[in-house]
Fold this sequence. Notes:
- The protein is of the alpha+beta class.
- The protein is about 30% helix and about 35% strand.
- It is globular.
Amino acid sequence: MPLYEHVFLARQDLAQAQVDALAQQAAQIVESNQGKVMKTENWGLRSLAYKIAKNRKAHYVLLNIDAPAGVVAELERQTQINEDIIRYMTVKVEGLEAGPSVMMRKSERGERRPRGDGEGRGRDGEGRGRSRDADAE
C-alpha cells in the first residue's frame, strides 16, 4: 500500500487532550478503512509564519499512514469538516522514517546554536551600526 505523511494544525486555544483526541479520531478514520497509522507525533504548540483564521500559533501533529488512496481522501474530507483544524497537508512518500522525525530531532538538540564570534557582526567583520558608505565619506 502507498505511504503518506499527514500533518495537521489545530487551533491554539485547544487543550493538549483535545489535540490528542483529534489525532486519535484521524487514526480511527484510517484504521476503520483498512489502513494503518504507523506513527503519531505531536510537535507541540508552535508559532505560525503568518496569522491563519486569527491564530498566531497552532498545535502541529504528524501521522505516518500506510493506506490506499481512498482512505486518505476520506481522512482529508473529515479534516476539512472539522472546525478545530485550521490547515492540513498530506504527502505521498517513498518510505517512512523509522525514528523520530526531523522536527522532533530539532527540539531534542535545542533550538539555538551559539554564534561564531558572539559580536553580531557580518561575514566581513563590519559592525551593524555603520555602513560602508559612511566610511567612504
